[in-house]
UniProtKB/TrEMBL annotation:
The record marks S102 as: Interaction with substrate tRNA. Its cofactor is Mg(2+). It comes from Chryseobacterium soldanellicola. The keyword tRNA processing applies. ATP binds at G11, P12, T13, G14, I15, G16, K17, T18. It is an enzyme of class 2 (transferase). Belongs to the IPP transferase family. Residues 36-39 are annotated as: Interaction with substrate tRNA. It catalyses: adenosine(37) in tRNA + dimethylallyl diphosphate = N(6)-dimethylallyladenosine(37) in tRNA + diphosphate. This is tRNA dimethylallyltransferase. Keywords: ATP-binding, Magnesium, Nucleotide-binding, Transferase, tRNA processing. Catalyzes the transfer of a dimethylallyl group onto the adenine at position 37 in tRNAs that read codons beginning with uridine, leading to the formation of N6-(dimethylallyl)adenosine (i(6)A). One of its GO terms (biological process) is tRNA modification. The gene is miaA.
């Protein structure tokens, strides 16, 4: 039986993945599955640059605004849910589009997660004490020494990611980056990965302008409405944590906004580091023309034939 096809659109934040995913979905008359872990939360539309109402209406999307920030949702749960959704969608479509810049979430769908050990209670206790007494900087330093490769791509502002990686390294005596590099389950669909690229200065300029646009659209009010949840993992992310510091009186607003831009650029840099290691991504230039898109479709169809 002929395998179904999954086209995964990847790239750094702010590069234009949503537009390309919609263009592809329209061409193949299909639906979009998001693997952007920040866009799962319905209360965080502006700060995560979730697709607009018009974009959502253009093509059916899945896993956008499907959760509340109060919901606990693990990457393992996402893998299970996303594969179930793909199986449903493949009943009516030959091809599905996956899109998002959350690297591990894409990996979970296209390759499967690794059989990593459960959290060790003693390690977690020890690491939480370090976090409480010496701050996130100390956790960053520990992970950087143990596994510089993973540190280069991890969201190092997210203390839970740091705790998890260090715990696993301590338990296994292996680098976390090596453990997650081992592909698990083979998938019963073909995967074609499409990336968008741009000169770094242009990407950073787009990111800066996008932050200004978010502020114009009401990011400040959105963050204010979520301030009561600031201790939750979902809100421990770029665009919100900086504004919470403004609300607390630690920073003035201009500085908070400049930090959002800086941290967004840093996140993009980590995404680029991750994608650069892959040799299976076919790239399209930012601002692609109709001819470029037609060439891409030709490439995809040739890959399907293989």
């Amino acid at each position: 039986m002929k395998k179904k096809n999954l086209i995964s659109v990847v790239g750094p934040t702010g590069i234009g993945k949503t537009r390309l995913a919609i263009d592809l979905a329209k061409h193949f008359d299909t639906e979009i599955v998001s693997c952007d872990s920040r866009q799962f939360f319905r209360e965080m539309k502006i700060g995560t640059a979730s697709p607009s109402e018009e974009e959502l209406a253009a093509v059916p999307h899945h896993f956008i605004g499907n959760l509340s920030v109060e919901d606990y949702y693990s990457i393992g749960q996402y893998e299970e849910d996303a594969l179930k959704k793909l199986n449903e969608l493949f009943e009516n479509h030959e091809t599905i589009i996956l899109v998002g810049g959350s690297m591990m979430y894409e990996k979970a769908v296209i390759e499967g997660l690794n059989d990593l050990p459960e959290a060790d209670e003693e390690n977690q206790k020890k690491l939480h004490e370090i976090f409480e007494n010496e701050g996130i900087d100390k956790l960053q330093e520990i992970l950087k020494n143990l596994d510089p490769e993973y540190f280069a791509i991890v969201d190092f502002h997210n203390h839970r990611r740091l705790l998890r990686a260090i715990d696993v390294i301590w338990q296994t005596n292996k680098k976390y980056s090596e453990l997650i590099a081992v592909s698990q389950d083979s998938r019963d669909f073909n995967v074609i990965r499409i990336g968008i690229e741009a000169p770094r200065e242009e990407l950073y300029d787009r990111i800066n302008r996008r932050v200004d646009m978010m502020m114009e659209k009401g990011l400040l009010d959105e963050a204010k409405s979520l301030e009561k949840f600031k201790g939750l993992t979902a809100l421990n992310t770029v665009g919100y944590s900086e504004l919470f510091k403004y609300f607390d009186g630690e920073w003035d607003l201009d500085f908070a906004v400049s930090e959002i831009k800086k941290n967004s650029r840093r996140y993009a840099k980590r995404q680029l580091t991750w994608y650069r290691k892959a040799d299976d991504i076919h790239y399209l230039q930012l601002g692609y023309s109709q001819q470029d898109f037609d060439d891409l479709i030709e490439y995809i169809n040739e890959e399907f034939q293989k």
